[in-house]
């Protein structure tokens, strides 16, 4: 199989040995990935796409290269997700905004009100798709067993309404084991529809920024899907684009 490995990367090659692309093979909680696939200079994109389908079959391919993603889509595959990987260097943080009367930030945790609020917030046509039972199990697992990663308590919080019920949260981990730089990571941030428009999302994001710095981490990262209106919030808070992340499942 024309895949050649060195210490940090794998090279996808043509049948004649010509190098086509560099990538990292890894596993993401049971999902085999061909991650950070980057075409090499001069390599024909249709040839890379053909060899990716053949030699990386069964993996989820992730690439920062929009043109390679288009070449794979041209072979009949479907773009699973298009997103932007962003970072904040935590050097110049916005002040914590005031919360509306009766609203408070509470320690991170999980309850039925929060689950219902996030399910409503992520209802289609949200670009990240609907909130599923599997999403709930994963978040509960973080709080109950620390799996697959424990929450970063200093940077995570719930927002609680005047009725004492959870209406949204920010959930962070850190240091993030899936990145190649040292950073905290926002796994999820959301506010229930009935509580939106009050500045609660900005308050949660600001809490995460200050909490990540208090935890001693040099950066806070996140991934935002194309078309997500929250991108405006991240830009305004000082997040900067690091790379594109385009995902395609290879049959």
What does this structure look like?
The protein has 6 helices and 12 strands. The chain is 25% helix and 32% strand. The chain has helices at 45-55, 66-73, 112-121, 133-145, 200-214, 231-237, and strands at 3-5, 10-13, 19-28, 31-39, 60-63, 79-88, 104-107, 157-160, 166-173, 184-191, 220-225, 240-249. It has 251 residues and is α+β, with helices and mostly antiparallel strands. Strand 3 and strand 4 (31-39) form a beta hairpin. The protein has a 12-stranded mixed sheet.
Query: H/E order of the elements?
Result: EEEEHEHEEHHEEEHEHE
Gap between N and C termini: 17 Å
Helix content: 25-40%
Low-confidence stretches: none
Our Rg estimate from Cα atoms comes to 20 Å
The computed structural class is: alpha+beta
Main sheet: strands, sense, barrel: 12 strands, mixed
Observed structural traits:
single chain, about 30% strand, about 25% helix, 12-stranded mixed beta sheet
In short:
By secondary structure, the chain is an alpha+beta fold. The protein has helices spanning 45-55, 66-73, 112-121, 133-145, 200-214, 231-237, and strands spanning 3-5, 10-13, 19-28, 31-39, 60-63, 79-88, 104-107, 157-160, 166-173, 184-191, 220-225, 240-249. Helix 1 (45-55) crosses helix 2 (66-73).
């Amino acid at each position: 199989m024309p895949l050649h490995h060195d210490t940090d990367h794998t090279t996808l090659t043509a049948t004649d040995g010509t190098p086509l692309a560099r990538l990292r093979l890894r596993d993401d909680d049971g999902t085999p990935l061909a991650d950070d696939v980057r075409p090499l200079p001069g390599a024909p994109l249709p040839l890379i796409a053909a060899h990716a389908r053949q030699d990386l079959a069964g993996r989820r391919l992730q690439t920062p290269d929009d043109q390679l993603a288009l070449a794979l889509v041209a072979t009949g595959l479907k773009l699973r997700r298009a997103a932007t990987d962003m970072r904040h260097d935590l050097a110049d943080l916005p002040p914590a905004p005031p919360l509306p009367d009766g609203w408070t930030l509470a320690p991170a945790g999980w309850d039925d009100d929060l689950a219902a609020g996030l399910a409503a917030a992520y209802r289609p046509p949200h670009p990240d798709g609907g909130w599923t039972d599997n999403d709930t199990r994963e978040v509960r697992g973080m709080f109950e067993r620390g799996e697959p990663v424990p929450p970063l308590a200093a940077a995570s919080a719930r927002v609680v309404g005047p009725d004492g019920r959870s209406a949204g949260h920010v959930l962070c981990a850190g240091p993030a084991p899936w990145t190649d730089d040292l950073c905290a990571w926002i796994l999820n941030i959301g506010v229930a529809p009935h509580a939106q428009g009050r500045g609660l999302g900005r308050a949660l994001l600001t809490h995460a920024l200050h909490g990540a710095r208090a935890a001693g981490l040099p950066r806070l990262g996140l991934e935002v899907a194309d078309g997500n209106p929250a991108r405006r919030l991240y830009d305004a808070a000082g997040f900067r684009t690091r790379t594109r992340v385009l995902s395609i499942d290879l049959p």
